[in-house]
Amino acid sequence: MTSTATPVAATPVTAAVGADPPRGRPRRPRSAWLLLLAPVLVFDAVLFLTPIGRLVTQSTHDQAYQRVLKDPLVVRSMLNTFEISALSTLATVVIGYLLAVVIWRRGPLMRVILFALVLLPFWTGVLVKNFAWAVLLQDNGLVNSALQGLGITDGPLALLHNRFAVIVGMVHYLLPYAVFPIFAALAAIDDRLELAARSLGAGEASVFRRIILPLTVPGVSAAGLLVFIISTGFFITPVVLGGPGDMMIANEIDFYARQLTDFAGASALALLLTLVVSVLVAAYQRILRAGGEYEAG
Amino acid sequence: MVENSDRSMSRRTLLRTAGFTALAAPFAGSLLTACSSKSTPSAKPNTTVTVTSYGGSYNDQLTKTLLKPFENKTGIRSTLLANTSLAGLKAQVRSGDVQWDLVELTAPEYLQAVDEGLLEKFDYSIISDKGLPSYARAEYGIKYLSFLFVMAWDQTHIPDARAPRNWEQFLDKAKYPTKRSVYGQLSDSSILEAARLAEGVPFDKIYPLDVDAALRYLARHPGRDKLIYHTANQEPIQQLTSGEVALSTSFNNRINAARKDGAKLNFTASNGVVAGDYFVVPKGARNKEAAFRLMDFMSNDADAGADFDRTTNLTLANTRALAKLPREVADTLPTSPKLADTILVRDDAWWAKNLKQTEQRFKLWQAGS
């Protein structure tokens, strides 16, 4: 039932967390799968665990944790990260849901075209997308010129170097991450459910509220959590599109490492972020599993 | 979808280990050079010195006026990188994998690096100090460069006749209602000094710097909503030429270089702030002898030095070069006695002691508290 939904949404996180032995497969001799895992384990040990280990050691120096948690800038950037991620997630999921429904309702050809339109920006680098937004949103940019040209505004609106711009840039980046899991959930809905509902007299709104929405809840939660997790790590978008008040935790890590050359503090911050994201990743996998059981049963 | 997962993973992994990227990046290159470099006892002609500076037009000028002539004279080649930073230097020295040979640091960064024991002592048996002015000679580096922190404007929006003549006018939002771009960090930018000067504090009373008073002034003139921040030296040139801002802080050489390329920008040296940069050699640098020979060349070669001064309008710490300059060029340099009465000399010692907490304070202020 979830064969279309789960792999699409689960791949990024499984990859991010690292080696996850296959579940429920026929038993093979222990040594065989260990051997197959060996390249991944070596890769992870050298390129992921070693640096993380050094971060841990480094973060224990100079009372780094106490120091960074007392820094008002850190507190501020943590609150910013939470607020910006939450707002971006909300906007992404709402827009992504609408987009997914539109794609789902079209015929095969239109679907291909619409998916291409979703994927095209997805394959474009985040920096390119952000600078494009900066060009559009600046005081003498396209948006402001158009608004003034049409006589809608007198002077330029402040569209760049603020939270609005950061969220616009992030939503643009994040949209595919929401569209795909939600679309997968929609595609998995049995067509006959809707026919049955209609034959019993349900209108469009009722079908949506009582059939489609409940059945896509797991897809939406998965999309929301995935998007939120990715949001917490944004770095370049607040730099290019935000103002100084929009710095997120990754920017603060960069500030500690590069400007203050306080590597212990930067490591402590990086590990705190890792910790929070790990908890979210665990929650994400629970949702996926719960969603699978719900739909399977 | 595979691309999707790979990308999200590598991005986040990268960000989580942000402090370590500096360590990891040079790792690959070191494998290639590690075996060969140790066996080189002295700077042979096929040595390559890795030099780091700030990039943009300045790197082109460094290459043309100093690095190429040095190579022609000695056969020692150099690679010039644009990503100089104390953080990068520190990460390399700490990890024992030193990729850079000659590193540009701001004056407060130099003093911090000395404190933390990250630098090689300069060998003045290789570097002749005949052409080196005494202010530039230091134990662990040479203050090779003096530059001028200035106010700059876009001539298409602000004709020279209406341009600011001092920091009070520059920060006056009634006179210029547009946004101003200022350098977001303080290690070689002097916006806080500028705010004190704008308030009427005389040059000799600027230090010890009253940071709170400077920030209070900036909060009213021009106010946070009229300030945007740049993070790289070439950025204000783009912001000015694209029309994003009409006023910006910058450095005299950057504006001059842009003008030579046809940009309609200008600046005034009046009310400028003179500061200096050091070249240092990281502890454990592979080609330190070649680096010292390059420093010897920079400090003593009259022709190359004069070409550098002429091209950049910056003062190289090389008295032989200064002696060769025509008066009209010498008068425009940051160290010209003609300017001495109208410019402020940055207090490196104060900044070395107060840089970190002031950077944090300024960042917090920018964020609105």
TrEMBL record, chain A:
The keyword Cell membrane applies. InterPro entries: MetI-like, MetI-like_sf. It is a multi-pass membrane protein. Residues 78-281 form the ABC transmembrane type-1 domain. One of its GO terms (cellular component) is plasma membrane. Keywords: Cell membrane, Membrane, Transmembrane, Transmembrane helix, Transport. Signal peptide: none annotated. The chain crosses the membrane at residues 32-52, 84-105, 112-136, 164-189, 210-243, 263-284. It is found in: Cell membrane. GO terms for biological process: transmembrane transport. Gene3D superfamilies: MetI-like. It comes from the Bacteria. Belongs to the binding-protein-dependent transport system permease family. CysTW subfamily. PANTHER family: ABC TRANSPORTER PERMEASE PROTEIN, INNER MEMBRANE ABC TRANSPORTER PERMEASE PROTEIN YDCU-RELATED-RELATED. This is ABC transporter permease. It comes from Wenjunlia tyrosinilytica.
